[in-house]
Amino acid sequence: MRLSSKSRYAVRVLLELSRHKDGDPIQVGVISRLQDIPVKYLEQIIRDLKKDGYITSFRGPRGGYKLLSDPESISFGEIVRKFEGEPDLVECIADPSSCKLSDECRVKNVWEMATQELYKKLDTITMSDLLTNADGELKEGCDASHYKREEFY
Questions:
Q1: Cβ neighbours of residue 114 under 8 Å, at least 6 residues apart?
Q2: pLDDT tens by residue, 121-134
């Protein structure tokens, strides 16, 4: 299973907005540059995140986007499911008719358990977890380390 760029980018957008939860709204162009996401694609992701109630928008010269949800309440598993559905590691789990061997398959249960464990783990990781280190201090992410944040504010 490979996650789509849409779900990976959605996580990065939410992480960026989580970093600025209490600050001013962030404009699309700034998010695009900080997270290295093409603006047109970013606009689609933002539209979906806004529709699902994760973010809100503000108009005007100081407008942009802000996170509505608490970063502690947004898990990786939740975002992956929103943008991917709930993909199984192998097709036969959701659609047994896709494989002639499905009825007597000895490894299907292993794939099913692996899928469940993947989501179980993703559900334990929140945006807040990525923002702070073990001491509770804000940490810089590797997601945009090639940019100096001050250049965009």
A1: 89
A2: 999 999 999 887 65
The Cα angle at residue 98 between residues 103 and 3, in degrees rounded to 5: 115
> Whole-angstrom Cα distance, residue 42 to residue 48?
10
Task: Quote the pTM value.
Answer: 0.80
Residue 130 domain-assigned?
A: no
Instruction: Report the domain count for the chain.
Output: 2
- Domain range spanning residue 85? 75-125
Nearest partner of 119 among 79, 72, 90, judged by Cα: 79
55, with CB counted inside 10 A (0-12, 13-18, 19+), is buried
